[in-house]
Specification:
alpha/beta, globular, AB_hydrolase_fold, transferase, EC 3.8.1.5, transferase activity
């Protein structure tokens, strides 16, 4: 079983480019977290790792390879620490461990996005999220595949309208204590850490940290991609993941 956990600005459709390929080799589960896609809106703070546990229990899934992107990667790390007996391997894409402290000034898009959120300008919020996560720090929108951007826009609009991040994730329910960043050495399953070369430098620093601290980690940087390398270079991404899993 391979479980796919989406990033915190899109939904499970971000794995469209992986689905046909991965399902040829594994039973695959992808789902919309609360407040995203076809799931119910979030009504208060949630524990993403607990939601994942409940879902796997409901589906009678005892063991799985767990792959998460961005917030999904943080969820995957937390879940592995809390339920190590259920995780066969861990794949983190563009993710930071809980408790990871960003250095330097925050991206300008993030500050603008928070301001637009306060003003209720949801169109602007959505565009800035796409600029921040799909385009990245080093590209203009016209330098990114328009199909990738449009797909992300379609997924992003619902959580923006639902206020998912503010309601559910700004102050998550029952975060790991101590946080994952201080416990990475406790993770002993094989791990693959991936990031896009054009992502925020702090995401790349987090990838370095994960690659160094996870006991059995392999790190791969995918060139000319930002925060969702699986959407930008699906063929390369799929081959990397399948190659990793086939050697376990």
């Amino acid at each position: 079983m391979l479980v796919l956990i989406h990033a915190g600005f899109v939904d499970s459709r971000m794995w469209d480019g992986q689905w046909d390929t991965f399902t040829q080799h594994y039973r695959v589960l992808r789902f919309d977290m609360r407040g995203f896609g076809k799931s119910d809106p979030a009504t208060g703070p949630v524990s993403r790792r607990h939601d994942l546990y409940v879902l796997l229990q409901e589906l009678d899934i005892a063991h799985a390879h767990v792959l998460g992107c961005s917030m999904g990667g943080e969820t995957a790390i937390d879940f592995t620490l809390e339920h190590p007996e259920m995780v066969l391997s861990l794949i983190v894409v563009s993710g930071t461990p809980g408790g990871f402290e960003m250095r330097g000034a925050p991206p300008s898009q993030l500050l603008e996005m928070l301001q637009a959120l306060e003003q209720g300008d949801l169109d602007r919020v959505s565009e800035l999220q796409i600029r921040l996560w799909v385009d990245g720090n080093f590209r203009q929108p016209e330098q990114v595949d328009s199909r990738v951007r449009q797909h992300a826009v379609e997924m992003n609009r619902l959580p923006v309208e639902n206020g998912t991040w503010t309601i559910a994730d700004a102050n998550p329910l029952n975060p790991l204590n101590p946080p994952a960043v201080s416990r990475l050495g406790d993770i002993v399953v094989p791990a693959l850490v991936m990031a896009g070369s054009l992502d925020n430098p702090e995401i790349l620093r987090a990838a370095d940290l994960l690659g160094n601290e996870l006991k059995r980690a392999k790190k791969i940087i995918i060139s000319d991609t930002a925060h969702v390398p699986n959407m930008e270079k699906p063929t390369e991404f799929n081959q990397i993941v399948l190659n990793f899993l086939s050697h376990l």
